[in-house]
Design goal:
- The protein is an alpha+beta fold and about 325 residues long.
- The protein has three domains: about 5-115, no CATH class; about 125-240, Band 7 domain (Tetrahydropterin Synthase, Chain A, 2-Layer Sandwich), CATH 3.30.479; about 245-320.
- The chain has helices at about 10-30, 45-60, 155, 160-180, 185-190, 195-205, 220-225, 240-270, 280-290, 300-305, 310-320, and strands spanning about 65-70, 75-80, 95-100, 100-105, 110, 115-120, 120-130, 135-150, 210, 215, 230-240, 270, 275.
- Strands 2, 3, 5 and 6 form a four-stranded antiparallel sheet that branches. It has a three-stranded antiparallel sheet with strand order 7-8-11. It has a two-stranded antiparallel ribbon with strand order 1-4.
- Helix 1 packs antiparallel against helix 2, helix 4 packs across helix 6 (about 195-205) and helix 8 (about 240-270) crosses helix 9.
- The longest helix has 27 residues, at about 240-270.
- It starts with 11 loop residues before the first helix and ends in a 6-residue tail after the last helix.
Length: about 325
């Protein structure tokens, strides 16, 4: 059967009546007609005619009784007579599911194109920030995978992908935040990322929950409500939040800047060729570093009109190559 075919255009009564009439006629032609007396010379031709009528009748109605579901695809069929019962509650259900294969169906089973469902694995990603015990925020990139459960396709088609994503992301994120906070420091959390990943999956698979009035695990609850099978949770990356990284980077630059300025001040206050250069302040040394790095156009001595500018800049060129700080 072509998956594009939509049987809702033909009513169930028309399908059943048409199928019954066609099969009754074919049964008459094949079973009852031979009992009527005919000339011997017509027996062969009559057999060919009966066989042709039977094939035509069966061919015209066979599509109402056969259903082909493509590979890696499931199908939810609308059962207009509610013949199927729920395996748990035993209530009559309006829908039943078919796995990839060739199936026999009844004329009252309605096939809709939109109810053909891909059974391929789905990957969802999310990025969240979580606090550590010592304070710094950690930005974590995660992903998880699930695939539709062919046994629960009626639940799966009842929710959209956004609902499934939000449900799993909320649960995964809540457990992940708790597990990160259990680590003493942010650095330890980063070091133990794979252990945290394992603990999150273990908790999803084991934390108690309630679904349909009965006790279950969190994984079972999500799977039953969304009609899927949960497969993998992965932490792809765990690092300090961007603002904290920028703060650490700025602090490291300032520490390095202070070391360079301190070294430059020491060199500029030592004797050179029998003479001596006057002591400069930390501000002066820092300004000279900026000039040498190309981050300032004039040094503090040029701005303030001091005659130390030429001597200090000349000495700076001898002691430290351009951009060598």
């Amino acid at each position: 059967m072509n998956p594009k075919y939509d049987e809702t255009k033909i009513g169930v009564v028309e399908r059943v009546v048409f199928a019954c009439v066609c099969w009754a006629i074919s049964a008459y032609v094949v079973i009852l007609a031979p009992y009527f007396s005919v000339a011997v010379q017509w027996e062969t031709w009559l057999f060919v005619v009966r066989l042709g009528v039977w094939v035509a009748m069966v061919g015209a109605t066979l599509r109402y009784f056969l259903l082909q579901v493509p590979e890696v695809t499931g199908l939810v069929v609308l059962d207009l007579l509610k013949v199927v019962r729920d395996p748990i509650t035993r209530d009559r259900m309006a829908m039943k599911t078919f796995s990839p294969s060739l199936h026999i169906k009844f004329p009252w089973d309605v096939v809709r194109e939109k109810n053909f469902v891909s059974l391929e694995r789905v990957t969802q990603e999310f990025t969240e920030s979580y606090p550590s015990q010592e304070g710094p925020m950690l930005e974590v990139k995660c992903s998880y995978q699930y695939l539709p459960d062919v046994r629960r396709l009626q639940q799966y088609i009842a929710v959209d992908e956004k609902t499934i994503s939000s449900g799993f992301t909320d649960v995964n994120s809540s457990i992940l935040g708790e597990e990160i906070y259990r680590e003493h420091t942010a650095a330890e959390a980063r070091m133990h990322a794979k252990d945290i990943e394992r603990r999150v999956y273990t908790r999803i698979d084991g934390d108690p929950a309630v679904t349909a009035g009965r006790h279950a695990t969190m994984k079972e609850k999500l799977e039953e409500e969304f009609g899927i099978n949960f497969k993998i949770f992965t932490i792809k990356d765990m690092d300090f939040e961007k603002s904290y990284q920028e703060m650490r980077s700025a602090k490291a630059r300032m520490d390095r800047f202070g070391d360079i300025a301190k070294g430059l001040k020491t060199k500029l206050t030592t004797a050179e060729e029998g003479g001596a250069v006057d002591t400069i302040t930390n501000k002066d040394a820092a300004n000279l570093v900026l000039v040498d790095q190309g981050k300032a156009q004039k040094n503090i001595f040029e701005l303030e009109g001091s005659n130390l500018a030429g001597a200090i800049v000349g000495l700076l060129g001898k002691l430290l190559p351009k951009g060598g700080l």
